[in-house]
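Re: the 337-residue chain
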Amino acid sequence: MMPIVAIFDAGSDDQAYFREHLAGTFRLSISDGPLAEAVLDLPAEVAVVSVSAASRVTAELMAHRLPQVRLVACRSTGYDNVDLAYARAHGIAVSNVPAYGDATVAEYAALLMLAVSRRLRQAMRAVDTGEVITAELTGRDLRGRTLGLYGAGHIGRHLAGIARGFGLTVIATDPRPDEVAAREIGFRYVDAQELLARSDIISLHAPAVERTHHLLDRAAFGRMKPGVIVINTSRGSLIDTPALIEALEAGIVAGAGLDVLEGERFLQSSNRRQLLSSNIVDERSQQVLALDVLTRTPTVVITDHNAFNTVEALARIREGTVANIHAWHVGKPVNLA
């Protein structure tokens, strides 16, 4: 009998591609909704689950709803939405799609840098209201400023190349420095403390793991130079959101470009209403309140986890996911977490 592959968060293009390249080898169950919403209808024999970062693959789901799952195929570079400890303890492989968005996410980070530096949100709002006051829309050049990269992997290095084209000085901190790449691109490695103290713009390109949780906290913001801009296209958990709000209010942070945030699922109004009607005052409620503050802050540009979203990157994600599933099926799994 063919193994069952259950695919979630799949748009129409995803569904067509997966049917073309997986049907015949696997039985497919495909949903456009997230895992939690559709898993009750799945047969217990599901062997492979494929999800985007929008779905959480918890220990409870794997234990009770997906007892025979052997592979979680993440359609993302990050896999912090999967309970890795449970998966590893129970022999469940977890794969990702590395490097699909090197240029894609780096370009988006550059977009956010420009949008915040040139007060694009305020400028667009001024046109909408018909009250254009030029003095209130004065921005800053990128040329001559210093960009600090927290993480100089594939995406960080690509952004470094873009930044050098803008005339920025680039410094970086990374647990695995690549001095050859640094020389070729034209940036320099420094320690984290020097990066915080010197950077005019800080862009985060690190995975969401224990050591990076709240990488930018109150102490870190306290070490930054006044007027710094913060960019995050990685994971929301890298920033302590209340600490960021305090730094914005104190003028330490002049602006922020955030494609990812803690509790970002509550950016969708339906999720906010559901939480607020639950009469629960907990960490999730605090995240909703923090998001409300940030969305009302004119120097903050917020998008909802969109940095990966280009035609080219989505094609690479589909191709990589299919390759990962076929490799697992023939006993030669690749791109394992």
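The longest helix spans residues 311-329.
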